[in-house]
Structure prediction request, 232 residues.
Amino acid sequence: MTNLQGFPASGPGTAQDVSYRWLKWTIARMPRHEGTFLTESEVARATGTSRTPVREALLRLEAEGFLQIVPKKGAFVPPITDAEVRAVMQARGLIEDWSVRTIVTVDGDFIAQLERLVNEQESLIDDPWEFVDRDRSFHRAIVQQAGNPVLAEFYESLRERQVRMGLRAVANVENRARTVLTEHSAIVAALRTGDPAQAADAVASHLASTLAALQLPDVAGWPGPQSVAGLS
Prediction:
């Protein structure tokens, strides 16, 4: 499997899993203001798999909102506009604010889980992909603790859409990872007090900071629109 400019290679799995992870990784590194077409043959060559598992991986990613399959042309990875970034963050804000206000009883095991995730993030500060994965786990834990499975499921769909946005911010915005760690620690400290308003303020501050980082323009030096083979 191809290594992408310093990111660790994905783990074992079926040919579809390999294609899926490689595609998701590649899409996350594309400039968000520009759209790009991918073809099954290019992805198959880059991942060393056949076109059938690539096609299945593309269908999975289409269902998750990462791309659009256009008959006879390939898979189109659409640009991410500032309006979409704001919309996703507004939706996250509503769900996460409700979640921390709902978690009124301080649960020692839950606080310990969040602290463990923050510590794991800190150990992965030089690995943007894994750092963002732990970030997602941290926020998912808070939403799930609130106990509404419908909101938790909807929240997952929002976070899938944000992977491409968040990876670029962590990898390119100076000290962004350190800022995230500080803000996550503040959320944990606020939840530990059992004060819903304090917890909501900590979450609001973190999401405002995240929005500001996500709306920064693309940084020079990242791959532009080109064939998938050119990214390998």
In short: The radius of gyration is 18 Å.
